[in-house]
Request: fold
Amino acid sequence: MQAAQLLELIKTRRSVRKFTDQPVDQALIDGILEAGRWAPSGANNQAWRFVVVRDPALKERIAQCTRYGAVVKAAAVLIPVFIHKPSMYHEAKDHQAIGACLQNMLLMTHAQGLGAVWLGEILAQAERVRQILSLGPELELMAVLALGWPAAGNQKSQRLPLSELLLAGGD
Ligand SMILES: Cc1cc2nc3c(=O)[nH]c(=O)nc-3n(C[C@H](O)[C@H](O)[C@H](O)COP(=O)(O)O)c2cc1C
Reply:
C-alpha cells in the first residue's frame, strides 16, 4: 500500500453506529483480530485479549451496560478488548498499546468495508461486562468494538487544524 492510500484509509474511517442485519464472515473477524495482534506494545508484552460475541442474548446483556445499548444490539459482532493484568509492566505504556491495538482493528475493519465504533463509555460497567463474559479478575475491560456492515454512509467528522496542534519549540 502506498503512503497516500494509507492516509486515505485513516482519514475515511468513521465511527459507525448503525448497521444492517447482514452477518459478518468469521474470516473478516479473523482479519481484524490479526491486525490487533500485530500492534506494537512496550517490551512486546502484548497484554491485549479479545472476545468475539455474536450471540444475541449475550449482546442484549452487554447492551444493558451502556448508554449505547442500541448500537451494541444492532452490531453483528462485538469484540470486547481486555488487558491481561499479569502481563502488564507499566500502566501508561500498556494502555497506550491497547489503544494502538484498537486503532489497528478499526483500520482493518474499515479496509474490509465493515463499520465499527470504539465504545468507551461502557467502561463505567467494566466489571459487569467481565462477569457477563465469565472472565476472571486478571482481565480488565479496555473497550468494546461494535461492528457490522454499515447502514448509513456519509458520516462527517472534524479534526482540529494542524496549526492548533503544532507547538512551538521545535526547530
Ligand atoms: C477512547 C474512545 C472512547 C470512545 N467511546 C465512545 C462511546 O462510548 N460511544 C460512541 O458512540 N463513540 C465512542 N467513541 C468514538 C468517538 O466518539 C469518535 O471516534 C470521535 O467522535 C471521532 O469520530 P470518528 O471516529 O468518526 O472520526 C470513542 C472513541 C475513543 C477513541
Summary: The mean pLDDT is 97. The chain has seven helices and four strands. The chain has one domain: 29-152.
